[in-house]
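Our consortium's second objective concerns turning raw sequence data into structural hypotheses that experimental partners can test. To show how far this objective has progressed, the report includes one record in full. It was chosen at random from the queue rather than selected for favorable results. The single chain below, 145 residues long, was entered without modification.
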Amino acid sequence: MSGSVKFYEPWTSGLLLFLRISLAGFLILHCFGQLMAFWQAAQIIGPGAFPVLLTNAAVPLMFFMGAIMLAIGFKTRFAAIAMLVLLTSTTLFALVLSGSLGFGRLNLMERLTVILVLLQPVLLGPGKMSIDAVMAARFAARAAQ
């Protein structure tokens, strides 16, 4: 036994694509709800508090952009690591401040699930059905010339 496991490549690529798209869809729906709440608060409060609301909207905007990058497979590991660090730090910060994680739409179990699922693109990569794979193939073909 050589110690290396060979996976059936079409299934692996398809499952990684499904994982990326489903995780991105979940994150986009969550971020869309948070951004709409910020937009409603900006309408109520007025233009004077818009910079404060914009800084509070930075985290959902980052997750929204990271989810889009994750879905199309562009800089997948970078986006997953960035969202992983941000989600872990906000989870720990919320736990320290509030003493519980039952706020918003994500509770503790959903946050831990998303954290664990975000580990998979970091460890396994984007797969062959991604922009990263297309770019790597083009760079390899160009380097071979």
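The partners drew two points from this record. Residues 2 and 87 are 38 Å apart (CA to CA). The chain is about 80% helix and 0% strand. Both points have been shared with the crystallography group to help prioritize constructs.
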